[in-house]
Design a protein that fits this description.
By secondary structure, the chain is mainly alpha-helical. It has helices spanning 3-29, 38-51, 60-63, 66-79, 98-102, 109-122, 139-145, and strands at residues 91-92, 149-150. The termini are far apart.
């Protein structure tokens, strides 16, 4: 085989490789066309609209949804015996009980427990504003409960 024939074969090979690389790049860069039939799209849309319609109250998934959870929480809080009548305000933070704190609007179970734990940590409160040092009691919560507490 002569040198010129060999160079011709190499040139043809290189051209074939370049053409195939260009075709692959062109094929990748083209947007994909979704060939889903129109009837299948309409079926999908109709199924979606059925799922987003108002829930059936007898449906098991509705019964386990958050709507009933909120009702349960409200019923749980209202079913607890109210200690507001037996508590005199303001409540002394250094002598109060868990029940005294929970009776104050704005203090729930978690905050009441945190107030008592922080009281034990400090050895007693010296100022009502120390409540703001407790995680979860910011300025707005403090303003809400301040009239009901004292030291």
């Amino acid at each position: 085989m002569s040198a010129s024939k060999r160079q011709g074969i190499i040139a043809i090979g290189v051209c074939c490789i370049l053409v195939s690389v260009l075709l692959v790049f062109y094929g990748i860069s083209q947007p994909k066309v979704n060939e889903t039939p129109l009837s299948q799209l309409q079926d999908t849309l109709s199924q979606t609209s059925i799922k987003t319609s108002s829930p059936d109250k007898n449906d098991a998934s509705f019964k386990n949804s958050g709507a009933d959870t909120q009702t349960t929480v409200l019923n749980t809080k209202s079913s607890q015996p109210s200690t507001a009548q037996s508590v005199s305000y303001p409540v002394n933070l250094n002598t109060c009980t868990y029940e005294d704190l929970v009776s104050i609007d704005g203090i729930g179970d978690t905050k009441a427990q945190a107030i008592l734990e922080y009281r034990d940590y400090l050895g007693g409160y010296t100022n009502v504003s120390q409540l703001k040092e407790i995680k979860g009691i910011g300025d707005s919560t403090f303003a809400k409960i301040e009239p009901y507490v004292t030291v």
